[in-house]
Specification:
Elements lengths: L1 E4 L32 E4 L23 H9 L10 H22 L14 H21 L6 E2 L5 H4 L4 H15 L16 H9 L10 E9 L1 H6 L4 E8 L2 E13 L9 H10 L9 E8 L5 E5 L14 E3 L12 E4 L7 H11 L6 E3 L3 H7 L5 E4 L13 H9 L3 E4 L20 E4 L2 H15 L5
Parallel strand pairs: 3-4, 10-11, 10-12
Antiparallel strand pairs: 1-2, 4-5, 5-6, 6-7, 7-8, 8-9, 12-14, 13-14
Helix pairs in contact: 2-3, 3-5, 3-6, 9-12, 10-11
Length: 454
């Protein structure tokens, strides 16, 4: 399956320093342009791995697959790092998933709860599984693709789900027709019902300590997605029990931190009234990182009829330098069913987190910490609840590569090698912008745990 990359043959290795904008508009960037085109077949064993060109904070430059080989001959760059091809494909898959979300949910007003089996939420969730599975399978080769996610395909193939399945097939084909905009070749013909079920059926991995598999959360934060609030599409690659790359798509992520405090409907209105340009975006992003890079990146979602050209105005992000709890912003889950708000709030008070908490749905909390918009996230599950690996893997590696820390509440690394759940999770999860702040939170948990009822 070809994946198309724009490149500039003559000017690819000429560095450019781009403007970073102002601090009040954190996503203002100058545009990096490229001309010409090249086609790269990711499935060919004779094709060199895709080189991913990032726009860094200080020395932005554009690089191409063709020029990269020439530069290597002169010793100007090292060999492409591990997982570059996988990250490139994963980012495009999440971009397409977010495009699907906007199309399905942008004007959705729920008439009842999300349990409506034929609601746009259900259609979007299943369709995202199909889109991500199809892209990974076609671009990386079927033998390398194994996906763990929620809900078995049998739910969709039941006889009483025929209307839902029909809607999913229609949505998947409409989305795949747009694949060339994202640099991926579309199917030669529309996918049929059996093909869509087969594609989703590949999402049947059970994880484990060995081998390679992807973890997908197709619609994390179902409450947020149903009311215009925050939600996320999360995709991560886990190899031999270790997360090696993570991609988070946040369709409603605001451009400015102060927009987080707006009431949901007002945020939706102001985002629509403020039109994005080629150099800024007002809503929605994809954040990603890979293990050992020490860097995390953010790029805007693809809007209107534009084409995806790597790096799509990407910008490096990093965690906040705040280590004083009194100045830190604390992310608090909205959902109360699977977490103890009272213990977390008491802990926040005892450690000195005095700012109003940022109450948001989904893994967007991880994105907020990685981008420096918040400093602390704590979650302490109620007895009997098990955290799922796809709800944390992508966010954890992104924060870590952006300079932060994510552990269980005893300070141990999260263990993604035990199957579908974080089986050895001790007490809860703590994510912080830095080691100093993290240590203070862990100490406060130790001091308060015995008296808790968790």
């Amino acid at each position: 399956m070809p994946l198309y990359c724009n490149c500039s043959i003559l000017g690819a290795n000429i560095p450019r320093t781009l403007g970073l904008g102002t601090t009040s508009d954190k996503y203002t960037l100058s545009q990096s342009k490229a001309s010409g085109s090249a086609s790269l077949n990711l499935k060919s064993s004779n094709t060199p791995p895709t080189h991913i060109a990032f726009v860094s904070k200080f020395d932005q430059s554009f690089s191409s697959p063709i020029m990269e080989e020439d530069r290597k001959m002169f010793g100007l760059v090292s060999e492409p790092e591990e997982y570059c091809k996988e990250l490139d494909v994963a980012v495009r898959a999440v971009q397409m998933a977010c495009f699907l979300c906007h199309k399905q949910l942008d004007n959705f007003i729920p008439k009842s709860t999300s349990n409506n089996h034929n609601s746009p939420l259900k259609v979007a969730g299943w369709s995202i599984k199909a889109i991500v599975s199809w892209i990974l399978f076609e671009c990386l080769g079927g033998e390398n693709v194994s996906i763990v996610t929620e809900e078995d395909v049998q739910t969709l193939s039941n006889t009483n789900a025929s209307e839902l399945l029909e809607a999913v097939v229609k949505t998947v084909n409409e989305c795949l027709a747009e694949a060339p905009r994202f640099g991926v070749e579309e199917p030669k013909s529309a996918l049929g019902t059996s093909q869509v079920l087969q594609i989703i059926g590949r999402c049947n991995s059970v994880g484990g300590p060995s081998g390679r598999f992807w973890a997908l959360s197709p619609l994390d934060g179902i409450i947020g997605s149903s009311c215009g609030d925050q939600y996320a599409v999360a995709l991560s690659l886990i190899e031999d029990g270790e997360v090696v790359l993570g991609v988070l798509g946040c369709p409603n992520y605001p451009m400015r931190k102060d927009w987080f405090s707006y009431q949901h409907s007002y945020l939706r209105i102001i985002s629509k009234l403020t039109s994005p340009t080629s150099e800024t975006w007002n809503e929605g992003c994809v954040i990603y990182a890979k293990r050992g890079s020490g860097k995390a990146w953010i790029q805007p979602l693809l809007h209107a009829n534009k084409k995806f050209v790597w790096p799509n105005h990407a910008k490096q992000v990093s965690v906040s330098s705040i280590d004083n709890p009194a100045l830190a912003t604390y992310c608090q889950p909205i959902e109360k069913a699977n977490s103890s708000h009272s213990f977390a709030e008491g802990l926040a008070h005892s450690v000195g987190l005095s700012n109003q908490p940022l109450r948001v749905c989904s893994m967007m909390k991880y994105a907020a910490i990685a981008c420096g918009d918040a400093e602390v996230f704590m979650k302490f599950a109620r007895a009997g609840y098990k955290e799922k690996i796809w709800d944390h893997a992508a966010g954890a590696i992104i924060i870590q590569e952006a300079g932060g820390m994510v552990t269980d509440a005893r300070g141990h690394p999260l263990d993604f090698s035990k199957g579908l759940y974080l089986e050895r999770l001790d007490r809860g999860i703590v994510a912080c912008a830095g080691a100093s702040l993290h240590e203070k939170i862990i100490d406060a948990v130790d001091a308060s745990w015995v008296s808790s009822c968790l």
